Amino acid sequence: MKRFYFLLLILISANTFAQKTALRAEVAKKAARIEQKVIAWRRDFHEHPELGNEEVRTSEIITKHLQSLGMIVTAGVAKTGVVGILHGGKPGPVVALRADMDGLPVTERVKLPFASKVKTTYNGQETGIMHACGHDSHMAILMGVAEVLASMKKDIPGTIKFIFQPAEEGVQSGELSGAELMVKEGVLKNPTVEVIFGLHINSQTPVGNISYRPGGIMAAVNDMKITVMGRQAHGAYPWSSIDPVVISAQIINNLQTIVSRNLNVTENAGVVTIGSIQGGIRSNIIPEKVEMLGTVRNLSKEDEAMFIDRIKTIVTKTAEAGGATAELKIPFSYHYPVTYNDPALTAKMLPSLKATAGADHVRLKPAVTGGEDFSFYQEKIPGLFIFLGGMPKGQDPMKAPSHHTPDFFIDESGFVLGVNALSNLALDYMAMKK
Ligand SMILES: [Zn+2]
Ligand SMILES: [Zn+2]
């Protein structure tokens, strides 16, 4: 009897395997067929970039496309975001796929026929606007995924929510990031999303490759403001001062011991940076006050809590030791949680990525100390965020221009793998739930 069940199990899993392979082959065929369309969408977005929460034209194009595929579409989510819902022909879980939409205040220097010539004033400065992080690629890829999956609707066991999210790159102080606002407005509800997938193109990873990391893949970000209050005095008579400059120097040095002495560096990286220090007006006056701005990066919730706790102690106690007082605001204006790839979900989806890209082209990557607001979705539900190769083959990654720079360049031949990867992640996840 045991043997019978064992054989049955083998038959069922062989059948699911065959179904998955057949669906992946269909996705690959359809993705190849629309590759040129995906590239054309990307070039159009690239030529007409818009800053965070101003993605009006971008939003219209996406809305029309999703509507043309017969989806239920809601525009104006979290200001300029668009959400499309595709109900498959069979019952099953709700899976979300996400692309971000915003460009950056960067003046493009790349010689492309579709290079951006858009100009604006940002923080009082004249600047160009450029898709210098590759979010144009993300939108075009997700529009491609929408087209592929909409054409396979009757075979899909579940629902797919296509989330086009504005303002990933950070917003003005006091505003919420695109993802945070979308979550607040209920993007993960009605219907309730079970799991979310997203990707980021990378200008320093060769085309044809996918990289991933279970756990923290991108950092939690907290900015901070430290104000040290002392007593002003003549620079010639420091004994009558409480010198906030010397105390600030001690604080900066003591803060560096968190990474070197409190963090288990064999597990995760962490960063404390003071990027701005302001105090005093001339050489012979000890000022009353010094203000510092800094950024703190962590790859786990536990590390983040430990860092904040240590920063509070070091700032207040170092000031106290020097007879001064200090005020700490953390986060000051900006907080992104850690972009945390649920380890169980990552392990479960790894075969899907390997079947799509080829096992040799799926690589484990070191964590990134930059932040990503995909983390706000992952705070609520399990999610997987991967990196997609966008660097021309044969180029030296060290010489490839990085994201957020005027020379940032993406090789479009990498898009089709993105369309396949996201489509298969959704379909394979659903197949596993059956
Ligand atoms: Zn960016
Ligand atoms: Zn980005």
UniProtKB/TrEMBL annotation:
Residues 1-18 form the signal peptide. GO terms for biological process: diaminopimelate biosynthetic process. The Mn(2+) ion enhances activity. Keywords: Carboxypeptidase, Hydrolase, Manganese, Metal-binding, Protease, Signal. GO terms for molecular function: carboxypeptidase activity; metal ion binding; N-acetyldiaminopimelate deacetylase activity. Residues 224-320 form the Peptidase M20 dimerisation domain. InterPro entries: Amidohydrolase, Bact_exopeptidase_dim_dom, Peptidase_M20, Peptidase_M20_dimer. The keyword Protease applies. Its cofactor is Mn(2+). It comes from the Bacteria. This is Carboxypeptidase Ss1. Metallo peptidase. MEROPS family M20D.
